[in-house]
Amino acid sequence: MDIDRFTGFVRRCVDDYGMLESGDCVAVGVSGGKDSLALLASLSHLRRFHPSCFGLRAVTIDMGFPDMDFAPINQLCGELDVPYTVIKTDIREVIFEIRKEENPCSLCSKMRRGALNDAIVAIGCNKLALGHHFDDAVETFLMSLMFEGRLNCFKPVTYMSRANVTQIRPMLYVAEEAVESLVKALCLPVVLTTCPEDKASKRREVKTLIASLSAGYPDLKNKIFGAISRLPLDGWGKRRDC
Protein backbone atom coordinates (compact mmCIF):
# COMPACT_ATOMS: atom_id res chain seq x y z
CA MET A 1 0.00 0.00 0.00
CA ASP A 2 1.37 3.46 -0.88
CA ILE A 3 1.43 6.42 1.50
CA ASP A 4 -1.40 8.30 -0.26
CA ARG A 5 -3.91 5.46 0.02
CA PHE A 6 -2.82 4.61 3.57
CA THR A 7 -3.17 8.23 4.66
CA GLY A 8 -6.60 8.36 3.05
CA PHE A 9 -7.82 5.75 5.56
CA VAL A 10 -6.13 7.64 8.38
CA ARG A 11 -7.75 10.92 7.37
CA ARG A 12 -11.21 9.32 7.19
CA CYS A 13 -10.78 7.99 10.73
CA VAL A 14 -9.42 11.32 11.97
CA ASP A 15 -12.38 13.19 10.51
CA ASP A 16 -15.03 10.64 11.51
CA TYR A 17 -14.07 11.00 15.17
CA GLY A 18 -12.97 14.64 15.21
CA MET A 19 -9.42 13.79 16.25
CA LEU A 20 -7.69 16.93 14.97
CA GLU A 21 -8.51 20.58 15.51
CA SER A 22 -6.84 23.84 14.60
CA GLY A 23 -3.95 24.60 16.93
CA ASP A 24 -3.30 20.98 17.94
CA CYS A 25 0.24 19.82 18.56
CA VAL A 26 0.33 16.04 18.20
CA ALA A 27 2.98 13.75 19.63
CA VAL A 28 3.33 10.28 18.16
CA GLY A 29 4.36 7.69 20.72
CA VAL A 30 7.09 5.89 18.79
CA SER A 31 8.01 2.53 20.29
CA GLY A 32 10.15 1.57 17.32
CA GLY A 33 7.64 -1.03 16.14
CA LYS A 34 5.96 -1.10 12.76
CA ASP A 35 2.66 0.39 13.95
CA SER A 36 4.06 3.58 15.47
CA LEU A 37 6.45 4.11 12.55
CA ALA A 38 3.63 3.76 10.02
CA LEU A 39 1.54 6.22 12.04
CA LEU A 40 4.41 8.71 12.17
CA ALA A 41 4.96 8.51 8.41
CA SER A 42 1.25 8.87 7.69
CA LEU A 43 0.67 11.83 10.03
CA SER A 44 3.74 13.52 8.59
CA HIS A 45 2.13 13.14 5.17
CA LEU A 46 -1.33 14.20 6.42
CA ARG A 47 -0.14 17.46 7.97
CA ARG A 48 0.74 18.73 4.50
CA PHE A 49 -2.91 19.09 3.53
CA HIS A 50 -5.18 18.59 6.57
CA PRO A 51 -7.16 21.79 7.32
CA SER A 52 -6.27 21.69 11.04
CA CYS A 53 -2.61 22.52 10.22
CA PHE A 54 -1.56 20.50 13.27
CA GLY A 55 1.98 20.41 14.63
CA LEU A 56 3.79 17.08 14.91
CA ARG A 57 6.42 15.67 17.29
CA ALA A 58 7.74 12.16 17.97
CA VAL A 59 8.49 10.76 21.43
CA THR A 60 10.10 7.46 22.41
CA ILE A 61 10.00 6.04 25.93
CA ASP A 62 13.22 4.06 26.36
CA MET A 63 12.23 1.45 28.94
CA GLY A 64 15.75 0.19 29.47
CA PHE A 65 15.67 -3.03 27.45
CA PRO A 66 19.12 -3.90 26.07
CA ASP A 67 20.19 -3.76 22.42
CA MET A 68 17.48 -1.34 21.28
CA ASP A 69 19.07 1.37 19.12
CA PHE A 70 16.78 4.31 18.33
CA ALA A 71 19.35 6.14 16.17
CA PRO A 72 17.64 5.07 12.90
CA ILE A 73 14.37 6.58 14.16
CA ASN A 74 16.19 9.81 14.95
CA GLN A 75 17.44 9.83 11.36
CA LEU A 76 13.94 9.16 10.00
CA CYS A 77 12.50 12.02 12.04
CA GLY A 78 15.18 14.29 10.61
CA GLU A 79 14.15 13.29 7.09
CA LEU A 80 10.48 13.91 7.92
CA ASP A 81 11.27 17.23 9.64
CA VAL A 82 9.67 16.00 12.87
CA PRO A 83 11.32 16.93 16.21
CA TYR A 84 12.24 13.77 18.13
CA THR A 85 12.61 13.21 21.87
CA VAL A 86 13.83 10.07 23.68
CA ILE A 87 12.96 9.73 27.37
CA LYS A 88 15.08 7.21 29.28
CA THR A 89 13.29 5.36 32.11
CA ASP A 90 13.83 2.47 34.51
CA ILE A 91 10.56 0.72 33.64
CA ARG A 92 12.25 -2.58 32.77
CA GLU A 93 14.18 -2.60 36.04
CA VAL A 94 11.09 -1.81 38.11
CA ILE A 95 8.93 -4.49 36.50
CA PHE A 96 11.36 -7.36 36.03
CA GLU A 97 14.00 -6.86 38.72
CA ILE A 98 12.40 -4.95 41.60
CA ARG A 99 8.76 -6.06 41.49
CA LYS A 100 9.34 -9.31 39.55
CA GLU A 101 5.83 -9.11 38.07
CA GLU A 102 4.29 -12.43 37.02
CA ASN A 103 2.01 -10.62 34.55
CA PRO A 104 4.09 -7.58 33.60
CA CYS A 105 2.25 -6.29 30.52
CA SER A 106 -0.52 -4.39 32.34
CA LEU A 107 1.82 -2.50 34.67
CA CYS A 108 4.28 -1.87 31.85
CA SER A 109 1.52 -0.33 29.74
CA LYS A 110 0.43 1.97 32.57
CA MET A 111 3.95 3.10 33.38
CA ARG A 112 4.81 3.66 29.72
CA ARG A 113 1.61 5.63 29.10
CA GLY A 114 2.22 7.76 32.20
CA ALA A 115 5.75 8.54 31.06
CA LEU A 116 4.45 9.43 27.60
CA ASN A 117 1.81 11.78 29.00
CA ASP A 118 4.40 13.56 31.15
CA ALA A 119 6.81 13.82 28.23
CA ILE A 120 4.38 15.32 25.72
CA VAL A 121 3.10 17.89 28.20
CA ALA A 122 6.70 18.93 28.81
CA ILE A 123 7.27 19.55 25.09
CA GLY A 124 4.01 21.46 24.65
CA CYS A 125 1.80 18.88 22.93
CA ASN A 126 -1.89 18.47 23.76
CA LYS A 127 -2.59 15.24 21.88
CA LEU A 128 -0.94 11.83 21.89
CA ALA A 129 -1.33 9.69 18.76
CA LEU A 130 -1.17 5.94 19.40
CA GLY A 131 -0.53 3.26 16.78
CA HIS A 132 -3.50 0.98 17.46
CA HIS A 133 -5.03 -0.32 14.23
CA PHE A 134 -8.08 -2.29 13.06
CA ASP A 135 -6.72 -5.65 14.23
CA ASP A 136 -5.81 -4.24 17.65
CA ALA A 137 -9.39 -3.10 18.17
CA VAL A 138 -10.78 -6.54 17.27
CA GLU A 139 -8.27 -8.27 19.54
CA THR A 140 -8.93 -5.91 22.46
CA PHE A 141 -12.69 -6.46 22.16
CA LEU A 142 -12.24 -10.24 22.26
CA MET A 143 -9.76 -10.05 25.13
CA SER A 144 -12.26 -8.05 27.15
CA LEU A 145 -15.01 -10.54 26.39
CA MET A 146 -12.92 -13.64 27.09
CA PHE A 147 -10.86 -12.54 30.09
CA GLU A 148 -13.10 -9.93 31.74
CA GLY A 149 -16.61 -11.02 30.73
CA ARG A 150 -17.60 -7.61 29.35
CA LEU A 151 -18.03 -5.81 26.04
CA ASN A 152 -15.32 -3.20 25.92
CA CYS A 153 -12.59 -1.71 23.75
CA PHE A 154 -10.32 1.33 23.86
CA LYS A 155 -11.91 4.50 22.45
CA PRO A 156 -10.88 6.31 19.26
CA VAL A 157 -10.53 9.51 21.32
CA THR A 158 -9.86 9.57 25.08
CA TYR A 159 -9.35 12.66 27.23
CA MET A 160 -6.97 12.03 30.12
CA SER A 161 -8.03 14.64 32.67
CA ARG A 162 -5.12 14.15 35.08
CA ALA A 163 -2.54 14.79 32.37
CA ASN A 164 -4.73 17.18 30.34
CA VAL A 165 -3.86 15.12 27.28
CA THR A 166 -6.17 13.71 24.60
CA GLN A 167 -5.23 10.31 23.19
CA ILE A 168 -6.17 9.65 19.56
CA ARG A 169 -5.96 6.46 17.49
CA PRO A 170 -5.91 7.50 13.81
CA MET A 171 -5.20 4.03 12.32
CA LEU A 172 -8.39 2.23 13.38
CA TYR A 173 -9.50 1.89 9.75
CA VAL A 174 -6.17 0.34 8.72
CA ALA A 175 -5.57 -3.42 8.92
CA GLU A 176 -2.30 -4.80 10.24
CA GLU A 177 -1.52 -6.18 6.79
CA ALA A 178 -1.66 -2.65 5.34
CA VAL A 179 0.65 -1.39 8.08
CA GLU A 180 3.18 -4.09 7.23
CA SER A 181 2.87 -3.23 3.54
CA LEU A 182 3.55 0.47 4.13
CA VAL A 183 6.52 -0.20 6.39
CA LYS A 184 8.03 -2.40 3.70
CA ALA A 185 7.27 0.06 0.89
CA LEU A 186 8.86 3.00 2.75
CA CYS A 187 11.71 0.92 4.26
CA LEU A 188 10.87 2.28 7.71
CA PRO A 189 13.53 1.46 10.33
CA VAL A 190 11.74 -0.95 12.68
CA VAL A 191 13.50 -1.43 16.03
CA LEU A 192 12.73 -4.94 17.28
CA THR A 193 11.80 -5.14 20.94
CA THR A 194 13.92 -7.23 23.27
CA CYS A 195 11.17 -7.52 25.90
CA PRO A 196 11.04 -11.17 27.10
CA GLU A 197 7.24 -11.08 27.21
CA ASP A 198 6.80 -10.00 23.59
CA LYS A 199 5.87 -13.47 22.26
CA ALA A 200 3.99 -14.71 25.32
CA SER A 201 1.25 -12.14 25.99
CA LYS A 202 -2.52 -12.71 26.19
CA ARG A 203 -2.83 -10.55 23.07
CA ARG A 204 -0.62 -12.99 21.21
CA GLU A 205 -2.90 -15.85 22.26
CA VAL A 206 -5.98 -13.99 21.00
CA LYS A 207 -4.24 -13.04 17.75
CA THR A 208 -3.51 -16.73 17.13
CA LEU A 209 -7.10 -17.66 17.95
CA ILE A 210 -8.49 -15.07 15.53
CA ALA A 211 -6.19 -16.29 12.76
CA SER A 212 -7.40 -19.84 13.32
CA LEU A 213 -11.08 -18.87 13.31
CA SER A 214 -10.65 -16.61 10.27
CA ALA A 215 -9.62 -19.61 8.18
CA GLY A 216 -13.22 -20.85 8.39
CA TYR A 217 -14.90 -17.44 8.77
CA PRO A 218 -13.07 -14.97 6.51
CA ASP A 219 -15.26 -12.00 7.50
CA LEU A 220 -14.85 -12.55 11.23
CA LYS A 221 -12.72 -9.47 11.93
CA ASN A 222 -14.90 -7.19 9.81
CA LYS A 223 -18.02 -8.39 11.61
CA ILE A 224 -16.50 -7.87 15.05
CA PHE A 225 -15.27 -4.38 14.14
CA GLY A 226 -18.68 -3.61 12.66
CA ALA A 227 -20.34 -4.66 15.91
CA ILE A 228 -18.04 -2.36 17.89
CA SER A 229 -18.91 0.66 15.76
CA ARG A 230 -22.60 -0.09 15.18
CA LEU A 231 -23.57 -0.70 18.81
CA PRO A 232 -21.74 1.62 19.26
CA LEU A 233 -19.47 0.96 22.21
CA ASP A 234 -18.82 3.95 24.47
CA GLY A 235 -16.82 6.53 22.54
CA TRP A 236 -17.34 4.91 19.15
CA GLY A 237 -20.15 7.15 17.91
CA LYS A 238 -18.87 8.97 14.84
CA ARG A 239 -18.85 12.78 14.84
CA ARG A 240 -20.08 12.69 11.25
CA ASP A 241 -23.27 10.94 12.40
CA CYS A 242 -24.16 13.82 14.73
Plain-language structure description:
The protein is α/β, with parallel strands linked by helices and 242 residues long. Helix content is 48%, strand content 12%. The model has no long low-confidence stretch (mean pLDDT 93).
- SSE succession: HEHEHEHHEHEEHHH
**Cα-to-Cα separation, first versus last residue:** 31 Å
Q: Share of helix among residues?
A: 40-55%
Mean pLDDT: 93
Q: What is the strand content? A: 5-15%
What is the number of helical segments per DSSP (H or I, 4+ residues)?
9
Rg value: 18 Å
Shape: globular
| SS elements, strand count | 6
Structural class by SSE content: alpha/beta
Neighbour order of strands in the largest sheet: 3-2-1-4-6-5
**Runs with pLDDT <50, length 5+?**
none
Largest sheet report: 6 strands, mixed
Task: Give the topology.
Blueprint: H1 3-16, E1 25-29, H2 34-46, E2 55-62, H3 71-80, E3 84-88, H4 91-98, H5 104-122, E4 127-129, H6 134-148, E5 157-160, E6 165-168, H7 176-186, H8 202-216, H9 220-230
Parallel strand pairs: 1-2, 1-4, 2-3, 4-6
Antiparallel strand pairs: 5-6
Descriptive tags:
242 residues, alpha/beta, 6-stranded mixed beta sheet, 9 helices, 48% helix, 12% strand, globular
Describe the structure in brief:
The chain is α/β, with parallel strands linked by helices.
